[in-house]
Amino acid sequence: MDLQLFAERTEEPTPRRLRKAREEGRVARSMDLVAGLGLVAATLALRGVGGLSVSQVTGSMAGAFETLSPAELTPETTAVLLQDWVLVALRALLPIALAVMAIGVVAGALQTQFIFTVRTLVPRFSVLNPINGLQRIFSLRTLTEVLKGLIKLAAIGYIAYRSVRGLVPQFPNLIAQTVPVGLAAIADMVLDVMLAVGLAYLVVGVLDYGYQYWEFRRSLRMTKQEVKQEHREQEGAPELKSRQRQRMRELAMRRRAIKEVPNADVVVTNPTHFAVALKYVPSEDTAPRVVAKGADLLAQEIKKIARAHDVPLVENRALARGLYYDVEVGRLIPPEYYQAVAEVLAFVYNLRRQSRQAGQE
């Protein structure tokens, strides 16, 4: 059983999880925001160029009636005439439609951050499962969406009611107006109501987007174990990292051994498993210093370098093991090793003195 199913999701989604969700086409979006912007854009477009569009259509109709006689209105000519009127109406409404479409595309693109993926087009057969369907119908999210829809309907309906109610006193004045003036006044009233409803819809859309963003982030929350697992996947397994660090330390120690061992005073060996190179400069240090150390293959290489540069090798199993584990490269030996190291150095210095004397003789 996967215990992750019961773990509490308290951690915010990581950038990797957010990026993966985006690649899958899962982003926060609100159709109410797009609809609100579209309605406001349509209203402003109609108020801006709607009069010109109506003039184009009515002018085309008036010109047709003025040039055609009743005898010429046959089914064929009527069909052609209607076709011309439809084309004129489409040309007149095209700028408005393009403006609304552009606003809708831009609003959708800004919400999704211009994401494009085909994964959402791949059929998911899990949606055909009746059990999953029932779970979605009776889920908390479905209930929330229903409540949101009712609140949205009530809010927008109230705004529309208040807008129409404010225009009711103007209705009696329309009776005394001519037909064109009356129609223009009614059109202005309708546009006022549309604008009020569109702005209300836009406010609802902004609030809905905020909720959708919060719900989207909440749905991507992770358990502590998932965060740790993702971190391990990105950084690498601890065992692998440990081996890499060990390898880097070995390379660093090897480079140091090649550089420092030729100048060492003595190399203390185990004799096969450990090798520790020591150097003592009384004018600079208060005690001998470990300048290189190694185990196994590196120990053999240290001894090889020491032999090539006539550095004495002294076998002392306990001292070599102790220095290897207790003293880092570059550090002075601790006091508990003073006596043993002093004996080794005294032995080395005695060998050197005897060698010099033999050379002089």
Automatic annotation (TrEMBL):
Required for formation of the rod structure in the basal body of the flagellar apparatus. Together with FliI and FliH, may constitute the export apparatus of flagellin. The keyword RNA-binding does not apply. The chain crosses the membrane at residues 27-46, 92-118, 181-211. The gene is flhB. This is Flagellar biosynthetic protein FlhB. Keywords: Bacterial flagellum biogenesis, Bacterial flagellum protein export, Cell membrane, Cell projection, Cilium, Flagellum, Membrane, Protein transport, Transmembrane, Transmembrane helix, Transport. Gene3D superfamilies: 6.10.250.2080, secretion proteins EscU (3.40.1690.10). One of its GO terms (biological process) is protein secretion.
